[in-house]
Write a structure and sequence with these properties.
The complex is a heterodimer of chains A (328) and B (127). With 328 residues, chain A is mostly helical. In chain A, 62% of the residues lie in helices and 2% in strands. Chain A contains eleven helices and two strands. Classes of the chains: A mainly alpha (328), B alpha+beta (127).
């Protein structure tokens, strides 16, 4: 799973005008021809910088995204669901590793990325700053958050950077299990007892605003975003991805007799576009900057895990030191 | 005060409510290994990705978790990334030889037209 929308900040001196125009021309022609850029190829500094930032945030989202669902492993209803949830959480952590490796090929070490995560310097998907209050929340996350992630990741897997595309292809295959598993859980609750239906409706009510935030605010079209689109770093607009998500999943939610907590949500048959209440972007900003219900917990847990694992990493590093029999 | 979580395991950790902002110390950079897996005995090994490990044995153990937790796998190879010597894309032109190489491909040799023509002529002569 992953945190949706693209949020790019223009970096200082990031303008491609500072680049060697001949190399830039070849680079852009290769991308236009559908070729993949590989780690040892020449690339503009801005391309490298934005990719590191994007892939790193994606990796952090996977590793932090494992936490809200991981909360429910010990209390999963039944052995099969427990096995499935463990497998899903393990997949998410595995995805983080694949993505850290892809980002590393651009020149930032995994350790530096993890450090930037736990000191709050790098961001991760905002949705994981919300808690999974009941078992039904994990069902909604696994179905709808992963559905949103797939839309984003399928788009990104057609991007221009080889290592990222290859990691995403592998990830997308595994995500399809997450999506089916999540849908199965939601259907089970929605077709169950009144209490189960109430649980899943409550979870949907809680998660709808974060889901609408998931793809990020409408993109500002600037020269900078146009450059990133030409370089196939940014592959779709945030609004287009949100529309695609609504198109695919609102009917599936409605067919279960669940209510989406937005009275304005409807498809405009003339334009083919979904209309909805504008998500609260102030809240989005507030939470992404640290003031959400779980931000502190997520980072504290991650830091504690790193600290607790240190002795294991040290022991493994020195494993070549062999026991020797005393001399006398 | 410590963090009260929905997850009792996290509450029991007594995590500080105000997060520590210090960077981690004693970071140990493990080496990277390239991983190759074989899905069936007799098949060739295929490169599937890379990982970090402190030594070869751990690289195999971690490769099992990372690359064979779902699909069938009968064997894994790990190679230190640093031990791989690559031809490099900047030297891609070393693979360019003659503009066309049909002379060394099976499809470059088409004889049926000639055989058919030859047979037809022979038949006409004998008639």
């Amino acid at each position: 799973m992953y945190g949706g929308g693209y949020i790019f900040e223009e970096t200082k001196n990031g303008s491609p005008e500072n680049e060697d125009s001949r190399k830039l021309e070849i680079f852009e022609a290769r991308i236009a021809a559908g070729e993949k850029i590989e780690p040892t190829d020449w690339m503009p500094a801005e391309y490298r910088k934005q990719l590191i930032r994007m892939i790193e945030q994606h990796a952090h989202s996977e590793i932090i995204g494992a936490l809200p669902e991981g909360t429910w492993i010990t209390r999963a209803p039944g052995f099969r669901r427990k096995l499935a949830l463990m497998a899903k959480v393990q997949d998410e952590v595995g995805h983080a590793q694949l993505l850290y490796s892809a980002a590393e090929t651009l020149g930032k070490t995994r350790e530096d990325m993890i450090n930037d995560l736990i000191t709050g310097k790098s961001k991760y998907s905002n949705v994981f700053n919300y808690p999974a209050v009941t078992w039904a929340d994990t069902a909604i996350i696994a179905w709808l958050i992963d559905a949103g992630a797939i839309i984003n990741q399928v788009a990104n897997s057609k991007g221009s950077y080889g290592p990222y595309c290859r990691a995403l292809e592998r990830i997308c295959v595994e995500e399809s299990f997450h999506l089916k598993y999540g849908h199965d859980n939601v259907v089970f609750l929605a077709t169950g007892t009144p209490k189960q239906r109430e649980m899943v409706q409550d979870a949907l009510n809680r998660w709808w605003p974060p889901i609408m935030h998931f793809f990020g605010p409408s993109d500002k079209i600037s020269v900078h975003t146009e450059t990133l689109m030409r370089w196939k770093v940014k592959m779709a607009s945030n609004d287009d991805m949100r529309q695609k998500f609504l198109d695919m999943y609102v009917p599936k939610i409605w067919e279960l007799g669940l209510t989406i907590p937005d009275p304005l949500l409807k498809k405009n048959e003339e334009t083919g576009q979904w209309e909805y209440t504008e998500p609260d972007w102030q809240e989005f900003k507030r939470v992404i900057n640290g003031d959400g219900p779980c931000n502190k917990e997520r980072l504290a847990v991650r830091r504690r895990a790193e600290e607790k694992g240190e002795w294991v990493r040290l022991a493994l590093l020195r494993s070549e030191e062999k026991y020797t029999v005393p001399l006398s | 005060m410590s963090i009260k979580s929905l997850d009792p395991r996290i509450t029991r950790e007594n995590l500080p409510e105000e997060p520590d902002s210090k960077p981690l110390e004693n970071i140990h950079h493990w080496q990277t290994y390239e991983v190759f897996h074989q899905t069936k005995k007799g098949d060739r090994h295929i490169h599937v990705g890379s990982l970090h490990a402190p030594n070869q044995e751990m690289a195999v153990i971690l490769a099992k978790e990372q690359y064979s937790r779902r699909d069938k796998c009968v064997n894994l190879w790990v190679v230190k990334t640093a031990d791989i010597f690559s031809s490099g894309y900047e030297n891609e032109d070393i693979f360019e030889t003659t503009p066309e190489k049909t002379y060394r491909e099976a499809g470059g040799y088409k004889v049926m037209d000639k055989i058919n023509k030859f047979k037809k002529e022979r038949k006409q002569q004998s008639n």
